[in-house]
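Page 47, continued from p. 46.
Same chain as before, 333 aa.
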Amino acid sequence: MSTSPLRAAMVPVTRQMRAYFAPVIRTSETPTIFDPGQSGAFALNSPPAPWVDLGWVDNFARWYETPTDVVRSGARTLPAAQFRGPLEARVEFDFRQWGKLQMALAGGSEHMNVLAPASGSTAAAPSGGPPAPAVAVLGGSTASEIVFGAGVASAFSVGELIAVDLDYAQQIGYVGSGISAAYVSSPLAVNQDANYVRRVTFNVGRIVEITATSVVLSQPLLGGVPAAGASAQVVAAFVDREGGSFFQEWSALFIAEEESGGRVCFYYPRLSAGSIRSNAGKLVREEFSAIEKPMAAISLRASFLALPYTDTNDGQSVLCFRSYFPAVLAAAY
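Result:
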């Protein structure tokens, strides 16, 4: 047996798992691809677009629940061949940080932006009542700077969140610029609300600077440059709901950043929000981790069902790709 000192570098050691998500094009079910051969361009602290860094996650667990069975033959029914049953795989973890995308993924259905209410409005709704009027976005805007024209930007304040997207125009199907945020089956289902797309859009950013004609955001809009004809409204809060008919679907990459022994990555081309596995007979949505009584950190429990992707190299249906990047000079096996 080899006693090479290189074998010590074959044990992956990590502190925590890091989560990155990117949109799936829902109309064609096209995922965002992670190519391990191009991983050198994947900087953990500034991942390439459209991947979004959602921070460290806790209690990461994967299940591969695809059964295998055998074909038997002969007088003694001996096993002659083996085959796989229905494909199924799941992944669960806790988000340590709260944000719009984290809440949407943990909630699983439509995720709502609570638009700031209209002045003097007394109408109320759990996901936000009638909002203040939207402000039209002008050409020349980018994903990080939204142009409104002279004087109009003064309608906003530094520190506010804004949602930037098109008016709802009676269309049916997926809505949301750049990222599908909800599915509308009928204009009547959303009360023909002109603000509905901005209620659900992922194009949300926080204002850090106001110029004479524009506002500057702390992070680029997830959906990219605002579409022509888009408008903006102030967002007071985020809200998700138990229930709803829409299922979030995203590409996901989980990286065990190496302390030593190489890096391990788990790439799921398509993850759909699923039911949370039973924990001592209870379904857990949030976890409370004690810091120092009475203070506790609240984490978001997320659970997903892996959907199939056809590998273009050989046409096989795959649920997850596990890749390993050995440490420098580590043994191959």
